[in-house]
Amino acid sequence: MDSPLRLIVSNPVDRLARTIEALLVVASAPLTVAEIAGAVEDDAERVETALGLLRERFAEGRSGIVLEHVAGGYAFRASRDAADACARLFERPVERGLSQAALETLAIVAYLGPCSRPEIARIRGVAADSAVASLLERGLIVEAGRELEAGGAVRYRTTPLFERVFALESLAALPRLDDLGEGDELRKRLLDVASARAS
Amino acid sequence: MSASAVRELELDLDAFEGPFDLLLTLLLKEALEPREVDVAGIVLAFLERLAEREELDLEACGEFLILISALLELKARALFPEEAVELDALEPEEAAEELARRLAEYRRMKEAAIWLRERLGSEGERWFRLGPAPFAPKIERTLAPQDPPVLAAALRGLGTPPPKVSLSHMALRFPPVSQFLERFRRLLSRRACFDFDSEIEGLSRVEQAVAFLALLELRKAGEIALSQPAPFAPIRVSALADERISAWTARSA
């Protein structure tokens, strides 16, 4: 006689949770609540209830699989306990060998995007062609239209993959720019030099 | 060498002689052309000062790098006029503030890049599936209910060669001019004159054209005279006597 591997109470929400679990196994990118609701033909509120059940069931430390809320959706990943084994078998092509220039370009696109290569070059002080090409190839940024004027440069924005790689629920999860660096201090130092002699 | 010592670094350049901070102030106030400043000379002066000391002063080096970077940007903009419009329009203090703003913006982005790198490090234990985008469901093209006999008839229709299109109506058959020559001569042998339009009434356009050609031939041979009271009025054809031929010729001339 067949018996379930886990003792699961067969109520409607649990049946829904099992279906969502299956969808998340098949998906290669995070699924939004709306996408899941469309696939299971159920309302979003019940889907969120079922997802709560799954998050509890697939919490870190409880299973080899962890359900995380990332890049605006829900996705499975391996538990941190299995990271070493994963590293021996798999590659990380997206983030491997990201140069400082690429990371600076990525930061500019993430915070100021959509933005164009000339805008990136103006901030970094050097051409951004190579870094942009590398980020495009990795799938961390994509084209997002052109600047408004005629013949405007192509603009770029970050992708959901960027949010997933950096474990961000959304771009809003990035730290505030004001909390980074010491811009005011630098400004003060330059102005001091300029005004000290004049006064 | 402290950070303040960098500002007081004594320079002996072709275009300027004095402390570094005075040079920067003159540049920002546009009292000195950036293109005249030998940046390499400033760097050499700094390196010489640095070499005199046994220890490496990182704070002084950092301060010098920031100031020399700002100076380099000023010089670069002066060398490329189209790029310099923005800064030229500003007062020296505003230009300094603009430069500082840009440097601060870049520094914040560098800090953001550092944060991203640290984030990559801390999240390095997260492994997840990377794959192509999942297949979207295929949309099935549904057909309206079809009747097999109707479909068979449609296919048969495709297999039947279409009827050959007749081009017979396009063929032009010209009756001989001689036919009308004889006809008009016979007519004139019985009557002194006739009305051309009423004679050709009922004929096809091609036959009417050939009949007109015959008329011109008879006129050319001097056998007939032609008269038409007004444009598009009926053409009157009459047999021509010798004296009338002369009169007609004189009138035509």
What does it look like?
The complex is a heterodimer of chains A (199) and B (253). Chain A is an alpha+beta fold. Chain A folds into 2 domains: 12-88, Arc Repressor Mutant, subunit A (Orthogonal Bundle); 100-180, Winged helix-like DNA-binding domain superfamily/Winged helix DNA-binding domain (Arc Repressor Mutant, subunit A), CATH 1.10.10.10. Chain A has 9 helices and 5 strands. Chain A has helices spanning 12-26, 33-40, 44-57, 83-89, 100-112, 117-124, 129-138, 160-165, 183-198, and strands spanning 65-70, 73-78, 115-116, 141-146, 154-158. In chain A, the strands form 2 sheets. Chain A has a 3-stranded antiparallel β-sheet. In chain A, strands 1-2 form a two-stranded antiparallel sheet. The longest helix of chain A is centred in the C-terminal third of the chain and has 16 residues, at 183-198. Chain A is elongated, with a radius of gyration of 23 Å. In chain B, helix 3 runs antiparallel to helix 4, helix 4 crosses helix 5 (81-88) and helix 8 (177-190) crosses helix 10 (205-220). Chain B is elongated, with a radius of gyration of 54 Å. Chain B has 2 domains: 3-122, no CATH class; 174-252, Structural maintenance of chromosome 1. Chain E (Arc Repressor Mutant, subunit A). The termini of chain B are far apart. In chain B, the strands form 2 sheets. Chain B has a 3-stranded antiparallel β-sheet with strand order 3-5-4, with helices on both faces. Chain B is built from 11 helices and 5 strands. By secondary structure, chain B is mostly helical. At the A-B interface, strand 2, helix 4, helix 5, helix 6 and helix 8 of A face helix 2, helix 4 and helix 6 of B.
In short:
The complex is a heterodimer of chains A (199) and B (253). Chain A has 199 residues and is an alpha+beta fold.
